[in-house]
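Note to self: the last two entries modelled the partners one at a time, which told us nothing about the interface. This time every component goes in together.
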Amino acid sequence: MGVFILRKLGAALIVVFLASVVVFVGVRAIPGDPALALAAEDRDPEVLAAIREKYGLDDPLPVQYVRWAGLALQGDLGTDNRGIPVSETIVTRIPLTLELAGLALLIGTVLGISAGVIAAVRRGKASDYAATSVALLGLSVPHFWLGLMMIIVFAVNLGWLPAGGYVSFREDPVGNLEHMVMPAIVLGAGLSAVLMRQMRSAMLDSLGADYVRTARAKGLSEWSVVGKHALRNSLITIVTVIGLQLGALISGAVITEQIFGIAGFGRLTVDSIAQRDYPLIQGVVLVVAVGYVVVNLFVDLTYSVINPRIRVSGGASK
Amino acid sequence: MKRIGTHRARSALAVLGVVAIGLLATGAGGSLAAEKKAGGTLTIGLAEDPDALDPTLARTFVGRMVFLHMCEKLYDLNAKLEIVPQLAAAMPALSGDKKRMTIKLRRGVRFNDGTPFNAQAVKISLDRHRTLSGSARASEISPVTSVNVVNNYTVRLNLNARYSPLTAQLADRAGMIMSPKQLDALGSKFASNPVCVGPFKFTSRTAGDRIVLDKSQFYYARNKVKLNRIIFRIITDTSARAANLRSHDIQVEDRIASTDLPAIQRDKTLRVLKATSIGYQGLSINIGNKNGIGKPFENVGTPLAAKRSLRQAFELSLDRKVINRVVFGGTNLPGCLPIPPASPYFDKRIKCPGRNLPKARSMIRASGVSTPVHVRLMIGTDQVQARLGQVIQSMARDAGFQVDLQPTEFVTALRRQDQGNYDAFAIGWSGRVDPDGNIYQFVHSKGSLNNLGWSSPRMDLLLDNARKAATPQARRTLYDAAYRVLRTELPLIYLWYPVNRHGVMKSVKGVRLYGDGLIRAYFAEYK
Amino acid sequence: MSYVEASPLGARARRRRIMRRRFLRRPAAVISLVIVVGAVLAAIFARWVAPYSPDQTDFDAILAGPSREHLLGTDELGRDTLSRIIWGARASIQAGFLATVLAMAVAVPIGLIGGYYRGWLDTVIARVTDVLLAFPFLILAVGLAAILGPSLLNATLALGIAAIPPLIRIARGETLALREEDYVRAAVANGANDAVIIGRHILPNMTSTLLVQATLTIPAAIIGEAVLSFLGLGVQPPTPSWGVMLNAAQPYLNEAPSLAIYPGLAIVIVALAFNLLGDGLRDVLDPKTER
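The predicted structure of the combined assembly is written out below.
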């Protein structure tokens, strides 16, 4: 087990390193004088030259990379164009996105799993068709449009929920949830659609399996059959699917935060690039890549714990 | 089977854990969130995130709004846009040759860290504005060669040439005085914790989210300050900002978009503060910027650059009133000069031309350039700019122009403008009280922001004389002549003056808006 | 997974007839095929199908409601909404198809090679896939737009690149399974070279799975294009695309919500049609299905 973890970690570290290089080079590839980004209305060439020297923007690339990577490893991601430490911005804004993603994950898994189970158990009946259709819709609706529609209906017309913004949980728990309901639903909808379909097909497979027939033959209650046996085995699929959907969740968080005006981390990724704030872009995208790798690592490890066959074969197949 | 059972429990716990951590952490991240209105906190929704909160380096319009509340200046503007003393005790005294300016300072003033405000502090700040590498203020007060401390409450600025706009510049960021103690401690990192003289002091800032200011206990007019705390929340999306105002999550909204205005006007709990800006918006034509800003001019050869008549034809194909109606719902003020009607230097005799398609078409024919005449128009990336670009495109097409739109992100657009990599650019200027501040740097041959690559000896003469002229009447005559040159040559096609509208909850009084467009809430209070 | 022998024409034709019958028995699949074909044709022949040109403005009739002249009303510049939706189909469907083709063209060979040869080549491919996966498609798209400038082409590129990793996995998985099949082992034992084995035995038997995957990738790419154009990273105005229309509609949610409703519905209908078609194809091509 130890060797396995080490191997996985090693792979993850390589990926992180490669990702950091890609981020660094990618940011430098963006056309535009970074010195200009630090100078909004005034563009005196002497001023720009001074800025360039101050930030070492003229040094060779590998030197700049090593300098940046070295500091990053110590947790210092530099200061952005406004003089605010990048790590401070990231640390303050990540919790909002975590809450949004967490709630979306919760809604998505609860909705997706229950809908999938119902559809599988009542296969061919009305509830199956209903659930399947809704799931199909969930896959076909661009969730930012769903967000816009929900704002029109629930905020503008009915006035039940706020049109956007954010209040922290500690300040106002009810307000916080009020602000988070629509964004979380919008973000979790896509996940629930994918999960529902996977869950349904995985459950159908298990329900047809021999051991289930045996359990039924033995006279066990329907709940015991469905709940304990079929459900458990389908959870492997669930974990896999969630792992694969995490990227979509991050992308989705960006738009959801944009539409609902939540100053979260997802928004930060897009805004920093739009503002050509190089130190901020680097720090933010690096954190995204690292975070993604870490979560995938976690999912991999969880997966291997359930399925020892993976561990033995060396984890090459997924 | 057992492993799978524990796995299900584990994955459920994991999900709950994530949510719990998220909820707890949001508490940590949100401890600076808006308090309820009780206790005197005012939340203002800003349209953009300011850049560095360092008066020497700052360049954004919204930054000036934040500074108004925490960083006083030697002079300020009043409601009539006249210059009045703020940290200075009186208007400045000029020597006979106008090359020495003496300023007496207000007494009994302390910075927000308790240290005393005096002439030495003023000298340190002014020297920093003049000489700090990367200073955005240097060109604003470039004729100032040195600053002397005459006594504890008097400074003298020495100039190398007459410069009438100087007092106006000292009524903006170039006149902001910073605490020497804090400058000593933080140096170039002053923006991370700025300390000045002000009704409020800087408490904290989260990039892209909010800036928090608290009431200062050192301010010399403390009794006029009623609020305990001001929070500037950055809400760039216009409909989100309006929605927040309507839900009272913010009490003041910076710049209401025309599409949100009807709903806010219908709302009985809100009122709208309106002021026509002292700046302008229009189209900047690249005429001679072939080699980059600061380099010698050379005509770029595009149709609009080559022939003045084509620029005039382009202007005649546009209908300013329709642009205002369709793009802005009629909320701005169409115009064709670099300074607004409210300015004493405005020339009422100049009438803006309406749309004249036949004349435009005949001018194109006469020019000999084959139709369609190509124009590449660089615009911004937001929805308003998209509407503007498409309206201009559609109107110009009727005369025989083919306008290709190039939506470009702002910083990149500025770079391209400097490099001369554009045909026309839809951009404006936030405006300065003195007319020189709206004209000189763009169309003078030595103008620091002349990225049009256009100048003329006559224009240079007019503007230089206007800077040195002794009386406002003399200046007016000179600027009138300058406007006529601009109207004929059209290096810039001025299209409208923005009318700034800010939304305020009726329960808040004392929020003011002057022609400079900046929200002033420092003496505001809840009724 | 279907398996087809290199057998005389008769058996193949018979299989096709069976599949066609199965397909026609599914109303959902048939309807979705009709919608898909209709959308594609409308996009190709937009000039003749749309009543107006997409950039024909009418400043005296902005934000008008539905009328005889304008069946779906006009937008914020007085342009006919129905025409813009038809013309907008071009950008969306183009992006959808091109991104999918690009992704397939790259992912299938890579997945094949990795799954067939295994060993260190496979590991390298797995790591590269991981790095690609570490960047969510939106970040990729934003980055590409920042570097190369926003355009439909760059958006398509970003979408294509983002679609590659899952497709690699599927191609690889199929290859892994197929190479264990008896007829493949027989071919290896007979001494056939790799190219022949891959070309004649493995690839043809993957096509139905790949076809289904393609049909399911297209709607994701269409929605992705809408997202990118909505953020200003894809199609630029005045070129219509459903995402661009949604972006322009956002400030008008209060005063004229229909501006946002129609383009969104268009996306939903077309994406739904592709998804249903893909599902139908999967059922039809899977020999385990009863009907």
